[in-house]
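Can't attach files on this board, so I'm pasting raw text. These are the components:
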Amino acid sequence: MAIDIGQFVQTFFEESFEGLDIMEAGLLALEPGVTTDLEKINTIFRAAHSIKGGSGTFGFKDVTDFTHLMETLLDGMREGRLGVTTEGVTALLHSVDCLREMLVAAREHISVEPEQIQELRARLSRLLNRKPAESQAESKPSAAPGAAAAPRAAGWRIQFRPHPQLMHSGNDPVRMFRELAGLGALQARADASQLPKLADLRPEDCYLSWELELRGDATREAVAEVFAWVEGDCDLNLEPLTAEAAPEAPAKPAPPPVAPPGPSAGPQTGEEGQQGELLLERRKGEDRRKGDRRVNVAASDSASIRVGIDKVDAVINLVGELVTTQSMLSALGEDFDMSRLDKLHEALDQLDRNTRDLQEHVMRIRMLPVSSVFSRFPRMVHDVSAKLGKQVELRINGEQTELDKTVIEKIGDPLVHLIRNSLDHGLEPPDERARAGKPETGVISLDAYHKSGSIFIEVDDDGRGLNREALLRKGLQEGLLRPGEEYSDEQIYDLIFHPGLSTAKQLSDVSGRGVGMDVVRSNIHDVGGSIQIASRPGQGTRITISLPLTLAILDGQLVSVGEDCYIIPLLSIIESVQVRVDAVNRVAGKGEVFRFRGQPLPILRLYELFGTEGAVSDLEKGLLVVVEADGRQVGLFVDDLEGQQQVSIKSLEKNFRRVSGVAGATILGDGRVGLILDISGLIRVNNVAL
Amino acid sequence: MEKKTTELATLGQRGLLKREAAAEGLQYLTFSLAGEEYGVDILKVQEIRGWAPVTKVPNAPAFVRGVMNLRGAIVPVIDLRLRFGLETVEYTKTTVVIVATVQSANGSRIIGTVVDGVSDVLNLNAADIQPAPDFGTAVHTDFISGLVTVDSGMVMLLDVDRLLSVEEMFALENVRPAESHITAAAA
Amino acid sequence: MATILVVDDSASMRQMVEFTLKEAGHQVMVAEDGQAALNVAKGASANLVITDVNMPNMDGITLIRELRTLPAYKFTPILTLTTESTTEKKMEGKDAGATGWIVKPFNPEKLLATVNKVLG
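---
Top answer:
Structure tokens for the assembled complex are below.
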């Protein structure tokens, strides 16, 4: 029967990639110098072990060999023979990367650069105190199959004396004899001399012993194989029969009573080796056809989402409540009179509550824990800090905080950039820290938390802080700041978000790859968030990202401008004020500024920005809505405030395009379209801050 | 998903037309604009609506009148007179919006077009269509896929995908420098 | 035809063994670790148990010991799936009460040959 195991290979790849993630996380959690972390090492070992077992079965011999080395090293660590050293952990981490590439290559039928594998093999072998050549030889299938080299005999005399408990392990002499009979002509003589009296006889024990003669060309290995499982449960003696010693042997062996177990007749290792080689050959052939593509480990972007059953159940429950409310309302509607007005109000309140709850819970289905982004950082911090020669402790908090899936997907890269910045520019090398009287190990904390309807993510380091002077110089040099004017720290620090403004003395391998903080900021803006920076010289820098809980719904303030109606996100609004013209100044190049609580507040007239007709233009006749984004405040001049309501955000891009200053659109109560303002975009486009 | 439903609904509505078209040739919806007759492939047309006020969109070319609510979707509305640089007229009771599905590199879009009024459905064979001559008029030849002569005169067949390409509408806009930040303010 | 309990934490292994045995006409029960297997075993009897050794929750060795305490599994053949060809590792299973072992990697033919050998 031919069974195609190829159909399970996809499962093997999936579980192997999962295993690699487990190994990586486990390795990062190991503390070098501590060997007592048995359970952690066990977990890593188990993952490696599974990959090794599976890869062998599916014919990825290079993976098997490579994993075997890793496993041996892990075993040594587990048993305390080898220390858990930084070197060892790093080598294993690199091996995880390499293995990932090898598996991708195997899946895509492409090749991995052999130098990398060789180099890691050598490193692992060194750690195992062995020469690489040795480990390679070990993993190769034995060149000479035992069958050919083993001495041949006319047959075997087998003395088999089972210990009484032989059958306790589920073994059965009869089965073994049947197997032997498959190897040649078998004669058996039982010795029942040890059989006790019936009263003393325990049926589970074995009292018989046998003397067997097997005739045929079976090798010693093949015969021993039959008894391999009962080694230690019996006394076994194997003697070759010579032709002379067995004159009474039948001229022709009797046909075997059971079919010979074909493939298992030969020594196992040799056979498997050959099979592995065959598979390897076939894959090499495919490599050639496909050409030498480079390995691409990028995870495929999937449009599905895994949702916890509890979230689905919650929605189902709420739908149940909604149905109840609905039937209540229709019962009321059937014979309604004014005496039942109270009941109607009650039911409508309930409907309102149900709708809100349902909305909230449906939104929750799109929410994922931020840990799916955070989980990559321990590894990154480990690798980058090693490269930079810095000691860094990464503290992660709130990784269970949930965010909209779309937001999660968009904040990964910005966070990578921010953390790299902290590692590279923020944290000082150990000697510099020591001189400054700080602990040599720097701390980067990554926090996620939920506050007043928004999600906040903070990247905090205890490094040297931003260099205000350098930023000021650069700002003046680039013409972003005016000489002779006073700027607040916030205004200065904000400069790091401008394109092409990096104060790093030199571009390093770690950060400064051309992606700047301006890209970070625009990525955050794309998902409706904002970013703020705070820094203290010598004490560190904190970057706070605020993100909307969901991208689908927001609480909005409706404002009227001429015949149009716009929506301002409630979260951006500080307050609304009446303007006194005597407090407004026209500043050359800066437009109108309103002195508001002692601070100059730039005025943006919405009707001017949006070209709205028929709007109020007299500042004293309209309203100024004070809004804030990215730490900057402006006053949006509108005709009047309308109601507040939750609006569902619809895309303008789907059928049209992105419009600057507009975050999206929504359908208003009267069926018309209202535009939702993008406050930080408005502030940026109209560059009112400085 | 939404797109699919729309397409299915569209097909359902015009299933009959489509079958006829397959048998006899092509079908064009004709409409009038400043005294000229134009035709668009009827398979592109999703529906025809009377004019209703739209919401203005800032920083868009003048011919984009704004956006409307089409059963919950936000759909831009183009004034074809303005698009062709013709003189504008007051919208009347006969002013209609032809809602069409437009294919673009970024997938399909739904776009509304304001025209003076809808005239007829024209059954054509491919052989009836003459290539578009170089008019040297306001109507860009690129938008015209062909020309047919009917009893009442000449009908210009429009290439909806080109005509209503959002990318093309903003092609000129892109010449303008992208949003610049502080430097612009200082200037 | 026999009823066989297959225990492995690796889904691909489980699928492959299950498929192979089913193709050969056996009835197959699967479990993904020792604890799950023990629960299965307490509810149903099997003619053969094939178990991985390295597993989370309960490893194969513990599983074998536990199974041998159940009257229904006292003499049931139990085979370990092991990547270790060293005597020491094989013996660990044996000492716990395993009947024998199948060394990974194996192919479906070898698996069936070994199973047939045990089931007779």
